[in-house]
Amino acid sequence: xxxxxxxxxxxxxxxxxxxxxxxxxxxxxxxxxxxxxxxxxxxxxxxxxxxxxxxxxxxxxxxxxxxxxxxxxxxxxxxxxxxxxxxxxxxxxxxxxxxxxxxxxxxxxxxxxxxxxxxxxxxxxxxxxxxxxxxxxxxxxxxxxxxxxxxxxxxxxxxxxxxxxxxxxxxxxxxxxxxxxxxxxxxxxxxxxxxxxxxxxxxxxxxxxxxxx
Length: 213
Fold this sequence. Notes:
By secondary structure, this protein is of the alpha+beta class. It has helices at about 5-10, 30-40, 65-70, 80-85, 145-155, 160-165, 175-185, 190-210; strands at about 45-50, 50-55, 75-80, 95-100, 105-110, 115-120, 130-135, 135-140.
């Protein structure tokens, strides 16, 4: 297998795994040695064990951070501030992609960015809805209702109203408040139920303020 063979096989993939190359070379050890050489020469990025991406100028598809987060830790979904910022509910730029997982908490430093994974019990994890990211890429990303609840659960602020004010939440009128309340109840935490009611109040206030103009 030479590099032209590799490009012909994976140039349309955002990321790839060595198993995808066995049709080109049936010897897994030889494939790994060749990949390691191309990483050292700067042609490939090694993202984690068994996960690679083409490096510029060979890269035709820029891996979206959310897709990469999903692939770094299987079963995770993007949530918290990353999901809220992506959906326009907070004005901040979030440099670190944050996800929730039932596995260990941890941080991955990769050539394509920094990724943080926060542990939650399996029974507390939200639905893993797929979100189109453009360019044929998709990722599991929390809806805004779930991202807010995940953030409040993990941050555990003593003063929820003050914490929500610091987030500078916007566009709350587009939230599904019934879904927010349902998910808060399902998590079995009274403080999250109270938080959902406070968010509902903020949403109603934002709508009233908008209607005044």
